[in-house]
Amino acid sequence: MAVDKKYETPMLDQLETGPWPSFVKEIKAAGEENPMANDLIGLLEQSYTERLGHWKHGGIVGVMGYGGGVIGRYSDLPEKYPAVSHFHTIRVNQPAGWYYTADVLHKLCDIWDKHGSGLTNMHGSTGDMVLLGCTTPDLEPVFSELTELGFDLGGSGSDVRTPSCCCGQSRCEWACYDTMGLTHFITQKFQDELHRPAFPYKMKFKMSGCPNDCVASIARSDISIIGTWRDEIQINQEEVRNYSKNGVNIVKEIAVLCPGKCIDWDGNEIKIDDSSCRHCMHCINVMPKGLAPGKDRGAVVLMGAKAPIVEGALLSSVIIPFMKIEEPYDDMEFWEVIEEMWDVWCDNGKARERIGEFIQRVGLGNFLDEVGLEPVAEMVAHPRDNPYIFYEDYLEEEDEDE
Amino acid sequence: MAVDKKYETPMLDQLETGPWPSFVKEIKAAGEENPMANDLIGLLEQSYTERLGHWKHGGIVGVMGYGGGVIGRYSDLPEKYPAVSHFHTIRVNQPAGWYYTADVLHKLCDIWDKHGSGLTNMHGSTGDMVLLGCTTPDLEPVFSELTELGFDLGGSGSDVRTPSCCCGQSRCEWACYDTMGLTHFITQKFQDELHRPAFPYKMKFKMSGCPNDCVASIARSDISIIGTWRDEIQINQEEVRNYSKNGVNIVKEIAVLCPGKCIDWDGNEIKIDDSSCRHCMHCINVMPKGLAPGKDRGAVVLMGAKAPIVEGALLSSVIIPFMKIEEPYDDMEFWEVIEEMWDVWCDNGKARERIGEFIQRVGLGNFLDEVGLEPVAEMVAHPRDNPYIFYEDYLEEEDEDE
Amino acid sequence: MADAKPQRLTDIGPPHHDRFMPPIIKKNYGKWKYHEIPRPGVLVHTSDSGDKLYTVRAGSPRLLSTKKIRIFADLATKYCGGHLRFTSRHNVEFLLTDAANIDPLIADLDALGHPVGGTGNSITSIVHTQGWVHCHSAATDASGVVKAVMDDVIDEFKTMELPAKLRIALACCLNMCGAVHCSDIAILGIHKRIPQIDLKTLPKLCEIPNLIASCPTNAIRPTTYEGKPSVEIQEDQCMFCANCFTVCPAMPIADPDTDGVSIWIGGKVSNARSEPMFSKLAIPFIPNNPPRWPEVVEAVRMIVDLWKANANKHERVGEWIERIGWPKFFRMSGIPFEKTHIDDFKHAGLTFKRSAHLTY
Amino acid sequence: MADAKPQRLTDIGPPHHDRFMPPIIKKNYGKWKYHEIPRPGVLVHTSDSGDKLYTVRAGSPRLLSTKKIRIFADLATKYCGGHLRFTSRHNVEFLLTDAANIDPLIADLDALGHPVGGTGNSITSIVHTQGWVHCHSAATDASGVVKAVMDDVIDEFKTMELPAKLRIALACCLNMCGAVHCSDIAILGIHKRIPQIDLKTLPKLCEIPNLIASCPTNAIRPTTYEGKPSVEIQEDQCMFCANCFTVCPAMPIADPDTDGVSIWIGGKVSNARSEPMFSKLAIPFIPNNPPRWPEVVEAVRMIVDLWKANANKHERVGEWIERIGWPKFFRMSGIPFEKTHIDDFKHAGLTFKRSAHLTY
Ligand code: SRM
Ligand code: SRM
Ligand code: SRM
Ligand code: SRM
Ligand code: SF4
Ligand code: SF4
Ligand code: SF4
Ligand code: SF4
Ligand code: SF4
Ligand code: SF4
Ligand code: SF4
Ligand code: SF4
């Protein structure tokens, strides 16, 4: 494709200066050959000048048989910038851990140079490779070329969203389970739920290998699976002493900041009362050679995180305090729990009600009842402090006992 | 009065045994001469047997011209226990700090032996001397004999309730203002509001001399006035060293527990970064000879505490971060703030809505606007974390500025 | 009205405390320098001038006969120049200037059955309310439970061997007159049966709009009975708070077979170290078992012992549990964690565990 | 439908990562022992077997042309056997086995204008969203603000001299696609004008009950317009969240003169030390000032500098402020505290200062 139009972009030119890599350079680079990218520059300069976006609500566009994966987008200035009058994005499900080879990246770029704007987000904040700007007729061709290359679309709308994870065991010594393996498994297991929206609202999975939570799962996924351990922290006293020698103040930097207040350092040996350890990672983070998570590893499952709209932002909360994550993943009881939870949510959730909001509305205790999970103290920061208790069947139970 | 009836009280007799002083002994003692106390024993035994109270809702009873101070109470078994068919309580406003002389106590007892059950609570949880059990005709005589002795009734209903306070400067080295003086002043200043209910609901004042809050003001008063200081903690290093010598582990017992994390102890000298001190009292509590509150003393005013009904229990929250409390009390601007707050609450509060609930309903920011107080960061634990901001007149202000 | 009876005294307020304070206090008012606790129940306050005030604190059931008050008064005359005070937790304090009087006073108090103690790191008297002695709203008695518990923990009143102060409170219904909501251990009367509407008397006794508005969960709905406006209760929306009964006598809620108490722990009022905290639900329900409520006594004792054995110095019950975490407390205490422990009122979501900070 | 076109591939999901991981990772998968950060932007992971993997992390604007992706791919071929990955914060990571390749790779990246850094106690790339580049909902641009801020703080990307990690995020509207609500510093697009209802198109474009239900504060009320069902907005109940616009295009809310950004601080995600926390409002509003949003840049810089100069080691922004208290933060930063800082949403009461723990 050849590009003739040239826009004056004094505002955006400004953003080409400075040491941080510039998105403007990227758009201009693509715009040299790609008319969509070129018109985007024009439209964006107008937005900068007017301090106003120029995109309209998206219509329903997509690929055949899928309800998600494409975000429709139309400009409100189609005459002025015809090449971006359609400017849909395609969400391409990334490989777990965002690993690529040079070869596959070139092939992905080939597809996108052929059919789209030549612009991407590597990656979107859910995790997808986001192909920015495509016309409606080009959606199907992109899709078939992607699948030929072995790729598929990600989620959008009220479906399972593209799961994502930290690099876990592939590159991190702290991963308490195989985040990438599990993420791939989940993505494959729920392909139908991912492509065909059938929930009250979106449903995100994020997998982090340890409580550092490098994929921010607790802040932005409906199901957050965070690796942890339940035996003793592994200690290499020699290496701990080395840290101390090399300037780490173990009392001030570690013991005092330990939330379990369970670390003692006598100048020679570190002692940890593991029964009070909160599994926060801090001591391990500071002395990676000296300490390591225990050997009895698994994950804590939390659920319900979301952004503010409508009922206020939520962090995920504990639903399964500890769960082993071992192959064959398909045998894990967890999937039954997940599907039970979805059933309850689908049957009773309101439109656009995230599962976290739903649980708050019906009450965690009632939700557990419905799902068939036992309440455990790990699910709460503390027991209730108000006496407004819906005692249930207390009398009945007592009668039975007597 | 002579008492002939004798009740069998096997249940209550049980509670006469054991080392802790027994309320049953007290009722029985009074019951030897007093038929009301005697019938109370019978009625109470029946309650113990049946596991059920035998009191009915109180009607409106009181002394002439007062709307508060008497709690009407009738038994639902008037035939069986005629002496307690009326059994109203009279709330007598205690002297600040609950100080008495033997002489005045005898005179108070004289009145109560003559007109009532001979039973009291020394004191009720609001702070009043509670005279337990009086008939309607005896109310006026009790009142006139009390006033002759210099006493008056306390509050009940939707009025200012009997203010109370810790012993403060009368017996405590930490009192940052004269709690008893202020309490007496407030009680006198608001006599009309105390006796003639005119608010949406009750209004309690409690005064503590320091953040130890020995009168639990933050948990149970609509206006909690808690002494504090804003300059440096006074240090006697010699005495601090003595505590250390005598076994106080200053690091573990004090520095580590200091919420401001602002104490350093090098084994010889204690250093406090007063700009980070939270004024929690802990270090002072542990070493009363070594440390003392600063010299620039006053109080923080908090408001809104209450029990759970209806909107859930509340602790008071900061409304004035620091205020000097000096005589003449009448000159303090504080009274204007109080009356302003009452006006706003009276004009807009719903029936049975405590001021703490009211503030939550209308919003603290709006409440401050109405009262004419500036918002300050000390009023919140932290700024909002949700973006649902009712921006007001932002544009207008900017226009004015430019 | 005031004109009609001009000589009737009203609005005089309480007498000024100056009338009652001992001379040593008047002299040293605002000049106290430090205090010591030489033995349980005895405080010594030293003033700038060097004057020393000795306080002897004795336990009280709060419900006192005039006879007992007269005895206290006479003891004050005998040992304290006629001066005494009561505390914010209803104990009685004798104010002495002569240290030699301490032992004889304590002996007299012991003989009278009023133990001396409650200072420092001890259990002091239980703040409590009226119960079956005087209130129409009670789900349990107050004085009886208090007596039974104090009989059991009295050694902790008479000594100072706890990690910190321990404050117990009791309220006989959700109105919580004792403001038990910030206590280390709170005993709270509980109804568990929905109000039995007296349809006949309701229209006469109660304002229906007020009644409907009184229900925190909107369980009360307007209806008609025999052609007249009345109310009905959505059973599954009632959580037995009794606020409807407070505003309307035709909604009795007390019931011997279902009333009882619940136990709440970990609250505090002082600002020392941690900020004030609410008590949290530990034991959802124990049936009323008068005269001695043995299950309640045992529960309190268990919590006191567990805390005493495991807390660090200066750690109040709530501070201790915050450090070890609630799951660990439930494991250590053996109290089963149940659905009732999970908050479902307005701010419930904020009590969910929104982190991976767990102990195993 | 699947029957109609049997050969069309669907539901294949993403390719397995095995296809893309370098051999050293396959060999040592799950066997990494510890890591070190020899210099900013370079990680060395050592495995049980002694193998060493070198990672070089380079900054990225996230919005990449295929041209740039191809250049990255070629660098991977040149230095890393053709292997690379992206991070959860959109940086690109090159995975090397030969330490000797580190310096040449970094030199190439520098020449390309992609600085190496973002590891350890640094500022890494800003998680952000679409803004004026692609979204209809934006109250500000995303990429432009991010570029301007990163240009200013890039030294903190290239070094590791901060007290702890500092995570900045930007979302261009309250939908918060970047999930900025738990960031050390969050920049959030803000509308401040009520939606301008397009009464003509509304009945055609929108479902009125859904529209009414979408408003968190119930500001939208049913009404009629030219005889047809329509809606109106109670102006004083609108807090400009734009959720109505999300469900109904006939409620446009963007407006150049009133849109802008707000700054939120002190959030975190990790469980390290403290539990995850939400960010809190610091600066309620800064008007859009493209292309460089200088007031925003300055505000971020001020907060970073204040924190850097005052926090203890390992203290994230929120942990530092929790220790010193918010009033002190406001005093130190000079940011005026206003009514907007006081929460007035559902759980507002829980944010009031319910203790005497104040600093003066
Ligand atoms: C592309 C992406 C932003 C980005 O630049 O990275 C994005 C873009 C949009 N999001 Fe998002 N969201 C994206 C990740 C998120 C995240 C973060 C995450 O998933 O980790 C969140 C916060 C977490 C959460 O799920 O709550 C997020 C919370 C929302 C919300 C609020 C949902 C809520 O329950 O509060 C909306 C509004 C809605 O759903 O109607 C929304 C809606 C949208 C829409 C579809 C706009 C709309 O109102 O219909 C945006 C389309 C923009 C466009 O035209 O390109 N987006 N959105 C992210 C998806 C890329 C990807 O697939 O990888
Ligand atoms: C006598 C006393 C309990 C005691 O044994 O000490 C008491 C007794 C009653 N209180 Fe109380 N309250 C007493 C202190 C309190 C306190 C504690 C305090 O003031 O420090 C509270 C908690 C703090 C607060 O104000 O919230 C308290 C919170 C209530 C409530 C709940 C109010 C609320 O807003 O949640 C009610 C219900 C009501 O007002 O309708 C209530 C109602 C009652 C009534 C009047 C019963 C009623 O429903 O009408 C009780 C009369 C009992 C009787 O027949 O003797 N009482 N009440 C206390 C007053 C004695 C005194 O004057 O010194
Ligand atoms: C007499 C009394 C005030 C009054 O005017 O009546 C009082 C008097 C003293 N209190 Fe108190 N407090 C009194 C009720 C309280 C209350 C209120 C309550 O329990 O309802 C509290 C708040 C309790 C709470 O947090 O739940 C209270 C929390 C404190 C504290 C903080 C304790 C803590 O670590 O949390 C101290 C400091 C200390 O003891 O180290 C304190 C310290 C003191 C000192 C040492 C102050 C002094 O220097 O004179 C007094 C002797 C304490 C002792 O008993 O060891 N006082 N003190 C009250 C005695 C009640 C009783 O009979 O047992
Ligand atoms: C590569 C990446 C995971 C991935 O699969 O992509 C990653 C990798 C590592 N993280 Fe992370 N973290 C990554 C995003 C995160 C996130 C998510 C986020 O920022 O959105 C978090 C949570 C942030 C938060 O709390 O707000 C995160 C919180 C941590 C922490 C806890 C820091 C703390 O004290 O709060 C550690 C521990 C440490 O560094 O001491 C950690 C440690 C690590 C280690 C040292 C783990 C290891 O042994 O390999 C890795 C190198 C860290 C470094 O950069 O110094 N990582 N890390 C992500 C790199 C993002 C980037 O490009 O900058
Ligand atoms: S979350 Fe834990 S396991 Fe995963 S990359 Fe981060 S530190 Fe490693
Ligand atoms: S992981 Fe966290 S809680 Fe556990 S010992 Fe280490 S610092 Fe303490
Ligand atoms: S609140 Fe403070 S001043 Fe009052 S008695 Fe208690 S310790 Fe003393
Ligand atoms: S009063 Fe409290 S916050 Fe202040 S220095 Fe002492 S222990 Fe620390
Ligand atoms: S707590 Fe309830 S039952 Fe007890 S005195 Fe107060 S209102 Fe009456
Ligand atoms: S007891 Fe409480 S919840 Fe039940 S109907 Fe009455 S007011 Fe409502
Ligand atoms: S944050 Fe808002 S404006 Fe930005 S991409 Fe998401 S939905 Fe669009
Ligand atoms: S912008 Fe938000 S608050 Fe305003 S009307 Fe729309 S949905 Fe309601």
Task: Produce a short descriptive summary.
The complex is a heterotetramer, with two copies of chain A (402 residues) and two copies of chain C (360 residues). Chain A has 15 helices and 16 strands. Chain A is α+β, with helices and mostly antiparallel strands.
Give an overview of the whole structure.
The complex is a heterotetramer, with two copies of chain A (about 400 residues) and two copies of chain C (about 350 residues). With about 400 residues, chain A is an alpha+beta fold. Chain A is about 35% helix and about 15% strand. Chain A has 15 helices and 16 strands. In chain A, a hairpin with a 4-residue loop joins strand 12 and strand 13 (about 270). The radius of gyration of chain A is 25 Å and the shape is globular. Chain C has about 350 residues and is an alpha+beta fold. Chain C has helices at about 25-30, 65-80, 100-110, 145-160, 200-205, 210-215, 245, 295-310, 315-325, 325-335, and strands spanning about 30-40, 40-45, 50-60, 65, 85, 90-95, 170, 185-190, 220-225, 230-235, 260-265, 280-285. In chain C, the strands form three sheets. Chain C has a five-stranded antiparallel sheet. The chains are: A alpha+beta (about 400), C alpha+beta (about 350). Strand 6 (about 120) of chain B pairs antiparallel with strand 4 of chain C, so a sheet runs across the interface. The complex binds siroheme (SRM) (4 copies) and iron/sulfur cluster (8 copies). One siroheme (SRM) sits at the interface of chains B and C. One iron/sulfur cluster (SF4) binds near residues 166, 175 and 214 of chain A.
